[in-house]
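Hi support team,

I submitted a single chain yesterday and got back a structure, but I'm not sure I'm reading the token output correctly. Could someone confirm the output below corresponds to the sequence I sent? I've pasted both exactly as they appear in my results page.

Thanks,
R.
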Amino acid sequence: MKAKVLIIGGGVVGTSIALHASRRFDPIKEPVVLLERGDLAGGSSGSSGAILRQHYAEPIVASMARDSLRYYGSFEGNTGRPLGFRRVGVLTLAGPSRPESLVRLERSVKELRDFGIQTDVLDAQQIRATMPGIEVDDRAMATWESAGGYVDPRQCVREFAALARTYGTITRLGVEITDIVSKNGRIVGARTTDGDFTCEHAVVVAGASMKSFMKRFGIDVPIRVARVQQLFVGLPASECDSELVQEFEGYRVDLEDPMEQEHEKLMHSGEEARAPGSERPVLVDLEYGIYVRAERAEKRVRVAPLAYRSTDIVDAPDAAAVASHADAQWARTQLCKRLPIYADQPVKGSAVSWFPLSPDGRPLIGPVPGHAGLVVAGAFGDHGFKLAPSVGEGVAQMLKGEPVSAFDPAYFALDRTPAAEDWSGETYL
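Hi R., thanks for writing in. Yes, this is the structure output for that exact sequence:
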């Protein structure tokens, strides 16, 4: 089978690249083909918290997150396809037990505003009003992104792929790559369990399996994976109202969101502006090292660490890995210190996920040196959803030979020299 672009991997970044590329190439003369060895969102994308926020320490990444959030916000209105987007707001919190987090938070706000990212600084009183029941020191501070929230990860990936197909992308599931074929130093195709493909460009978006996949063909990419355990705790009865769940299931999002009006009321009055029983914002807790987001349909909250221990950084995912009681206990302790309302709620399970990282924490996006026609997009950690639309746009521009405006290619280039190694995942917090 002939392809102009062969995309290997069906997570959120792979399907975003397919969607953006398919709009640039003729589906008859220059077909875009996406191959996935399992199901769409079958890897780390499907188990992601899929949080959408713009608060990043690196301006280049913040601007990509800004553009991506706008894309998500207008997606249903433009296409009629829902992504399960909940614009509940994102609260990024710093506190005195980690004074460096306070300094970092304050420093980044001006830069974010310079990039057109609406973010406000909240004091302890305003934090308590935004998230009732939260325990914070009077010296705590936070940023508030009323435009942020999260999407349903599996639904989002499915809809990206479905829209890509309407533009001509061919998706093949359950297809394994057995060989990448090159000629005179250029990629010309791939052999698969579903037959041979010729192509001018191959884009590898293999997630946590990227390193082992590329190694099979003699190509080394500087990627390791972090073992990340996510804990699920039941929602209090006051937050499980069935009518509210129904309301949020049909929630329609546009850029002029009611959350903006709610935020204005909060900032001017200092009083509790959130309606009783309304869905809690996403909490990114820099002081206690966790993020928390509600999952109303499952009647639970998800709790996961923001940074990774050195002992959890390995070369390849372990399919046999099981949840750790100690990790679950740590996450529950951090959650209940911050939100005591969950102290009496039952644990509803744990899950182990694998997030790919690069030595300096930046993703790897772009051509593979010495292998013309071969492009990779990987090492996104848990930032794939936040950046996927911008990555998809930029890679599609690369493939078409257009100037790349969606991001700075040099910043993510594979042949860059890292200033220092940092596998903690804290680069963008």
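A quick pointer for reading it: The domain at 87-149+226-357 is CATH 3.30.9.10 (D-Amino Acid Oxidase; Chain A, domain 2). Let us know if anything else looks off.

Best,
Support desk
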